[in-house]
Write the structure tokens for this entry.
Amino acid sequence: MMDEKFLEILEKVGNVFMRYGIKSVTMDDMARELKISKKTLYKYVSDKNDLVCKVMGAQCEMDKIQCNEAIHSAKNAIDEIFAITEYVSSQVKQMHPSIHYDLEKY
């Protein structure tokens, strides 16, 4: 189970990756951007690969939650599709153009 602080870090790291891409951000950059020490960052992850994997895992969980909420709150299948499409579209709009290419590396 992840603690609250680490979940907050993962969310912020995800936002940094979305803004700048993955490959272009170093662990030094990440610590500076998050206003934490590298030591604090390394308390939670072993390296950048581990950080990317944990961020993507957390993002997948968030995507599942959002999709399930759309399914349970929709009146019918068409409303479900529209809600999920709107969510995915909002996520894609926030992505740095290199994200897909960068993820292939990881």
